[in-house]
């Protein structure tokens, strides 16, 4: 039998409070966001992407970033990370007391221009200032690379382009990097190829995989990562989130579904899955639409049902 996983312990980052809801047209009241993050901490989630210090005009959903950070009951066991687009965001994030700053850019020129309105080189240049501000405040910086597996405007993205950015992150003293796949273009062979290339180009960075289930292979990509020895993944409660370029696309891989897979493989996460399933149901109620998460609907595999709960067995 071949080994399905090279790792026995995984750090799951919950991105629901930021990535999961940022595109939702309806503003989620601040007290809900705070309550969700508190419940994630309570469930044992080791790292949470809590919010984003972008211009409130650009992302109205996250205009309450500072209030959210202020309202959360912090724990030494949970890293609260926040996205920042530039130096201004870094200053706000530092003032709000985040544990980690996450910067982001795309590996493809056209996506980066569309997303943050500057070239790849300009993004990297701007991050030097962010790194300086974070360094002065004693906050570690983590770098995400969007379109790491393909670009909706350019198609394939060269593995060298991804490796080069990772190398620049390492040179700026970042602690880790995320392979972002917002448009759901990753496949297991691409995961192996890119993880290996970045490991070679930037061996000091820890690697995180962030998949969307856009084309139904989100968890298959996780399996590829596990087989390659990657022990950090990002996911969102209920499978929230989406992609503006793929209308009606399924969002981030779902945290409960991911935890179920990891639990069944005997991989330790330290997270209480039942609490996460309850939370996903509450998030669904607040957002007022059906979420794509599957475990929250089907339950765990050994959850038994009373026989009289169904009239006849049909198949
Ligand atoms: Zn995402």
Q: How much of the residues is beta strand, in percent?
A: 5-15%
Average pLDDT, all residues: 94
From the spread of the alpha carbons, the general shape counts as: globular
Total of helices: 12
Q: Give the distinct bound molecules.
A: zinc ion
Percent helix, as a range, is 40-55%
| Poorly predicted regions | none
CATH architecture, by name, is: Alpha-Beta Barrel
Query: For the largest beta sheet, what order do the strands appear in spatially?
Result: 1-2-3-4-5-6-7-8
Largest sheet: 8 strands, parallel, barrel
Fold-level CATH name: TIM Barrel
Number of strands: 8
CATH class assignment: Alpha Beta
**Whole-number tally of structural domains:** 1
SSE string, helices as H and strands as E: EHHEHEHEHHEHEHEHEHHH
> Which class do the helix and strand fractions yield?
alpha/beta
Notes on the structure:
With 315 residues, the chain is an alpha/beta fold. The chain has a single domain, classed as Alpha-Beta Barrel (TIM Barrel), CATH 3.20.20. It is built from twelve helices and eight strands. It has helices at 16-20, 30-42, 65-71, 87-95, 109-116, 120-137, 159-171, 188-201, 218-227, 255-264, 273-287, 295-298, and strands spanning 11-14, 47-52, 79-83, 100-106, 141-146, 176-181, 206-211, 232-235. An eight-stranded parallel barrel has the order 1-2-3-4-5-6-7-8, surrounded by nine helices. It is globular, with a radius of gyration of 19 Å. The protein starts with 10 loop residues before the first strand and ends in a 17-residue tail after the last helix. Bound molecules: zinc ion (ZN). Zinc ion (ZN) binds next to loops.
């Amino acid at each position: 039998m071949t080994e399905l996983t090279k790792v026995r312990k995984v750090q799951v980052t919950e991105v629901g409070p930021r990535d999961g809801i940022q595109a939702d047209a309806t503003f989620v009241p601040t007290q809900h966001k705070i309550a969700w993050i508190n419940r994630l901490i309570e469930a044992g989630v080791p790292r949470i992407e809590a919010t984003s210090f972008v211009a409130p005009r650009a992302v109205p959903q996250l205009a309450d970033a500072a209030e959210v950070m202020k309202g959360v009951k912090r724990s030494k066991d949970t890293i609260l990370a926040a996205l920042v687009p530039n130096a201004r965001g870094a200053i706000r994030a530092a003032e709000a007391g985040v544990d980690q700053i996450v910067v982001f850019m795309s590996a493809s020129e056209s996506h980066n221009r569309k997303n943050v309105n500057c070239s790849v080189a300009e993004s990297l240049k701007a991050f030097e200032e962010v790194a300086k501000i974070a360094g002065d405040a004693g906050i570690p910086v983590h770098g995400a690379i969007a379109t790491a597996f393909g670009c909706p405007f350019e198609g394939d993205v060269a593995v060298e382009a991804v490796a080069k950015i990772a190398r620049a992150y390492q040179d700026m003293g970042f602690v880790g990097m995320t392979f972002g796949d917002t448009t759901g273009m990753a496949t297991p062979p691409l995961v192996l190829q890119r993880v290996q290339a970045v490991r070679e180009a930037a061996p000091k960075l820890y690697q995180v995989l962030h998949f969307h289930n856009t084309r139904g292979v989100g968890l298959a990509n996780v399996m590829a990562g596990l087989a390659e020895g990657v022990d950090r993944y990002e996911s969102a409660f209920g499978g929230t989130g989406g992609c503006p370029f793929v209308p009606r696309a399924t969002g981030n891989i779902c945290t409960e579904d991911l935890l179920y897979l990891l639990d069944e493989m005997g991989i330790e996460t330290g997270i209480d899955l039942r609490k996460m399933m309850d939370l996903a149901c509450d998030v669904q109620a607040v957002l007022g639409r059906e979420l794509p998460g599957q475990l929250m609907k089907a339950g765990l595999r050994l959850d038994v049902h009373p026989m009289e709960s169904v009239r006849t067995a049909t198949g």
